[in-house]
């Protein structure tokens, strides 16, 4: 028998390979530029004269473009190397940030947001698919948790830094800095070695099939993630404006608190994600999120915002990798199409949330909007318990 230290060392050896680390770094650097936009763009757009509806559309366009693109990226991963797709995404993002320096009106910037969505779909889907297919099944949830440290770290660091740069210097300095980060992601992506999966996929050599774009079996559990990200997309888009309205000068601290807690939970909670019941973790997070939204609706100080962000981060640290692993197990597949489909559902929530919320906020205000998001979370719990959990196949494929 191996002792605990030996088992831990063996697990680390199977997870932290050279390509895993390079892929993680490429994704992290790319997302540092992307996540810095979360609190920065709503403030930037309002300074240009955009209202809440336009802010919601401009933020939602990126997620919508990523949503549509992920289906095609998932199919492309059956035929092309993940490294090439990651490099293409990083290059496209760099071009989009450089264009942001000279393009200001609504519609030109909408095109930039579209390109950023396509770029995100490319590098994010390719990175996740390559990791899912080389990590042993027993460590998949833990590996996904570690990979998702990239968005957590980038959110914690880049969110407040982005607001600082655009406030202290200029929007041009900010966009050029983001372009430099995406060029670094391009370099790191080029160093990743591609690997073929052990099981050949007949779709690679065949003609076009709808199944090469969408995995229908994964849709039912993916609705749970869609609703959660509908809520998160709405909060992320409009919380900065609510915080400024409450007198908070840097809303990025809310995202930093969330990101720091998520990092800690994912670093030290890997065994929990591998061994605990995934269904219980999902329900626990959704209920926690409901409570936090109710508290957020009555909060007006930076301290309360930080507390809400930190508690939210605890749940999010476990929910996203667990929900993704659960959906892959439910569908019985982990190829590029399955990963592309589940990540596309993520983006659908992020796209629809801000767009719908931007329309209703002028009529409801921010506080009522947060309470409405709490109600959606309760609907999500009911959907998961009665429609997904109760009807799960008895023996899903590994």
Compact description:
The chain is 79% helix and 0% strand.
Architecture overview:
The protein is an all-alpha fold and 398 residues long. The protein has a single domain (15-190, 215-389), classed as Growth Hormone, Chain: A, CATH 1.20.1250. It has helices at 4-15, 18-35, 37-47, 52-76, 82-100, 106-132, 140-147, 149-168, 171-190, 219-245, 252-268, 270-275, 278-297, 302-331, 336-389. The two termini are 26 Å apart. 55% of the residues are buried. Mean pLDDT is 82; it is low at 1-7, 197-208 and 394-398.
Sheet bearing the most strands, described?
none
SSE succession: HHHHHHHHHHHHHHH
The CATH architecture would be Up-down Bundle
Overall form: globular
> What's the gyration radius in Å?
20 Å
- Fraction of residues in H or I helices: over 70%
Compile the SSE list and pairings.
Layout: H1 4-15, H2 18-35, H3 37-47, H4 52-76, H5 82-100, H6 106-132, H7 140-147, H8 149-168, H9 171-190, H10 219-245, H11 252-268, H12 270-275, H13 278-297, H14 302-331, H15 336-389
Helix pairs in contact: 2-6, 2-8, 2-9, 3-4, 3-8, 3-10, 4-6, 4-15, 5-6, 5-9, 6-15, 7-14, 8-9, 8-11, 10-14, 10-15, 11-14, 13-14, 13-15
Task: Record keyword descriptors for this entry.
single chain; 398 residues; mainly alpha; 15 helices
